[in-house]
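pinned: reference chain
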Amino acid sequence: MLDINLIRENPDLIRKALEKRQMDSSPIDQVLELDAQWRSLLGDVEALKAERNAVSKEIGKMKDKDIRQAKIDDMREVGEKISALDENLRQIEEELQAVASTLPNLPGENTPVGKDESENVIIKTIGEPKVFDFEPKPHWELGTTLGVIDFERGVKITGSRFYILSGAGAHLQRALIAFMLDLHIRQGYTEKYTPFMVRTETVFGAGQLPKFADNLYKDHEEDLYFVPTAEVPLTGMHMDEIINESDLPRFYTAYTPCFRREKMSAGRDVRGIKRGHQFDKVEMYIYCKPDESPAMFEKMVADAEQTCKELGLTYRLNQLCTGDLGFGAAITYDIEVWAPGCGEWLEVSSVSNVTDFQSRRANIRYRPEDNGKPQVLHTLNGSGLGLPRTLIAVMENYQQKDGTIIIPEVLQPWMGGVEVIEP
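pinned: its structure tokens
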């Protein structure tokens, strides 16, 4: 959520930011108009309440019964006016919040201006795409031949975009998750096992509502959402809390399955397990003071990069431009790994500095050590990494000419002695 004072005092700054994001700036005018109505009405209500309080004190001192009763009748009418105005205030405030909640975060100064993903900037590439002395196969062929991915039964029990990992395939996925969690713990993060369903206010606080309502799965009877990412419950953990400055920064990591109603075009990414409505992900999350967040962003990017390096994957760092930037992010680096069977770069991590956007929505603050007024803090999030695309990259980069797959050495401790996936 943007600071309402910033919108009041510098609306042109917000308009320019929306233009950089390739978005309509008309909601700013709506916010300003509703805010003006709300403040004017609030002034009327406060004036009437002040009048009622002053007259109430006078009534207690009046000795003439008729005059006292007349004043009491007048104040009853004032009270009815106040009630009506309070209801109007509530309605205007709800409308104001509804419009303001659709405004995205402001792009950071270092975020390049661009119209869409075609104008993202490749920061660096680490490693060279692996060269094979045979034609590398895509994971859907490898997985089917080895019997570790079952597409037909996944579709049978649920529908399109679902699959079953079997045997060593399921084991490899589990090994990747365990490896990532243990790595992030060594990097200084505290592991959290969070609920996979959360309340509406939690999803709103994380910035997923109302923007992404159509992409979320919901239990309407219980008013609970299935998590689209562990970022949501990790934000909600400290919702409506004040954290002591001495307890910052805080570093969390969590594994969750993620559920999203992917809006996929017909014919796009139809093969394999790259895109689906359910997938696993290990998340990194940081709470910190505003002046610490640039350094925390660099740390999180480096931590995600280390995951790729230890897995021996060729990857590149891609900075998103304003036209491709996520709703809550001020700056984002995507990490993409090379998948030789698919012949493409796969995004396995988006690391974002969300600044104070989520903390305002979720009402998360910190108290300075001098016991001063509570301040908004900054939050950052990043995949560390996302599956199944990391699984795809491992399968395709470590495939052998005979169709087997070598288990990367770093994963072998979690594979129970399995070093090669064979039919």
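why pinned: The two ends are 52 Å apart (CA to CA). The first strand starts at residue 121 and ends at 126.
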